[in-house]
Amino acid sequence: CFACIAKPPALRPPSPALAPAAAGYLMESSSCKGDSLRPPVPCKHLVEKKTMTNPTTVIEIYPDTTEVNDYYLWSIFNFVYLNFCCLGFIALAYSLKVRDKKLLNDLNGAVEDAKTARLFNITSSALATFCIILIFIFLRYPLTEY
Questions:
Q1: What is the pLDDT of residues 96-136, one digit of tens each?
Q2: 119-123: Cβ within 8 A, 24+ apart
Q3: Which of 11, 86, 102, 144 is a good FRET partner for 80, with 20 to 30 A between their CA atoms?
């Protein structure tokens, strides 16, 4: 390349064909302030070769958040059909928090909220099922017969 071949005369070594007086003149001109303040320009090809010989690959690894269950469908079912004392609504809120924390890669928070959503879903399902069974029992055997 032209930048590699054509260098300022002060940076080129003197050729042996020059007379000793001319070589002395070149040495004196190399001590000039203008040339000493200017750093030598590195060859662009050497910089490209350095970057091409050491390729690096960056792999981003995210924690696997697909293993955290958010109990979303169970929460919706409890909210719509078995919303005993608003426990289904609370379970749905925690299920949505689990989904948000999974998107933010907060695995510990997602696991904790998933446990809470599961607890509210179990409680809501159990209490609602118990109430439904009691209703069927009292419909089958009214209190007036006792």
A1: 999 999 999 899 999 999 999 999 999 999 999 999 999 99
A2: 120/75, 120/78, 120/87, 120/88, 120/90, 120/91, 120/94, 121/71, 121/74, 121/75, 121/78, 121/88, 121/91, 123/87
A3: 102
Q: Which of 107, 97, 88 is nearest to 70 (CA)?
A: 97
Phi, psi (degrees; rounded to nearest 5) at 15: -80, 150
Per-domain residue ranges of the chain: 71-141
pTM: 0.54
CA distance 27 to 14: 9
C-alpha R_g of the chain: 40
In 3-state terms, what secondary structure has residue 20?
A: helix
